[in-house]
Write a structure and sequence with these properties.
Length: about 425
Amino acid sequence: MEKNPKIDVIVIGAGPSGVACATVAARYGLKVLVIEKASHFGVKNVYGGAVYLESIKELFPKTYKNCPYERFLKKHNYVILNGNNSINVSYENNEDEKTSATITRFAFDSFLAEEARKEGVYFATETLVTSLIKKGNKIVGVKTETEEIYAPVAVIAEGFNSILLNEANLKKKTSPKSAILGVKETIRLGEETIKQRFQLKENEGSMYEFFGGLNKEGEDIPFSMGFLYTFKNTVSIGVGVSMETLLKNKVKPYEYLNRLKNNEFVKNLIEGGELVEYSAHSIPEGGYNELPEIFGDGYLIVGDAANLVDSVHFEGTNLAIKSGIVAGEVIIEAYKKKNFTKKILKNYKKKLNETFVIKDLKTYKNVIPTLLKRKNSIFSYYPKKIDEFFKLWTTANNKGKKQSYRKFLFSFFKERSLKELLSDVISFVKCAIEAII
Ligand SMILES: Cc1cc2nc3c(=O)[nH]c(=O)nc-3n(C[C@H](O)[C@H](O)[C@H](O)COP(=O)(O)OP(=O)(O)OC[C@H]3O[C@@H](n4cnc5c(N)ncnc54)[C@H](O)[C@@H]3O)c2cc1C
């Protein structure tokens, strides 16, 4: 890079959102500098491991197939846990094209950054942005530990723990209700064990989502979900637990992960594995109801920094990439009009509203609040009842089935009030109706 070049766009953060935005702007011929605090792309970034091919294809249509995917997800398992028992609903897609794959975070971020570099994006790694430079209400540049860098527009892509946005009063501080802490372990099992244990052929992959089973007597029921993804030689296993639960129960996040790993079903999946990595990161879960203002004079906010995560489907990277693409397009528009004020940059919000990013968040806008409100039902009571039902279904007790079924049905009314049962049903039906209408 030439000395003291004129920079058109500064992007803070080389995650998927920042790199997508930088690529689109650089393709148009703008001088884009991405500032990344880590020494290597993705080394400190955390995720479960599934990426969605459609978004990568949109960003790099010619090269998305070269991304070093490890396994293409073909088997999708949804597992309800209760104590040591489990009910597994398994879906296997043998017809359609590959739509999602696992890839390590390091490989994913590195691939995106290297492709972006080929398109003309400049990167400054091992450089921490310490603050945003404001002139009145306008963002005019950034301060790093050693210098000030100015540009007509800055893109804040620093992920969910957006210290810069909080400091500049551009985003409300997150409440414990609006954040999940994700903790994850990478466990090495070896390629052959993975193929045998998960019944996978060459580059096929399997994923699991776990519901319930993490509560302990005397504790507040945790709002939590677990996951497991298969990679070539390893699996990633983790839980996302609401910060509110963690504070209330004063239970360490890894304790929840240990509870998941100790369930008999899960134990069998990871048996004999060697722990190779442990990591933790927070995830926004406020969804549509807690979207911050994502544009202002001289700046745009993309990806996790803008709370763009679909916690219902565990999707984040694709929303990050799409928001980055849209931000890049609006920056090009601002350059054409030589106007970097809200007047033009507000088109980012307008255009993003038309994409799956905001549409999906809107579709599920009441799902997470409903799950939070009814967490005792979802993560404890109904898993227990489903377990009881299957116990009944699979047990021959020589007493006659009808009597057992009646007893099971009446137990609902013994254990819960009609009002509680009805409000559970109404809440879930309401969420389902909202999702389709
Ligand atoms: C446990 C867990 C599991 C997940 N599983 C999945 C999954 O399976 N699939 C999926 O699609 N999504 C998943 N997500 C969500 C996904 O990781 C995020 O939505 C996505 O990474 C957001 O991308 P981003 O570019 O907005 O931010 P990030 O990926 O967080 O990138 C931000 C970048 O900014 C850099 N940075 C931050 N501050 C500064 C600064 N001041 N100066 C310079 N650089 C800075 C960081 O080092 C980082 O590289 C998961 C998240 C977690 C925590």
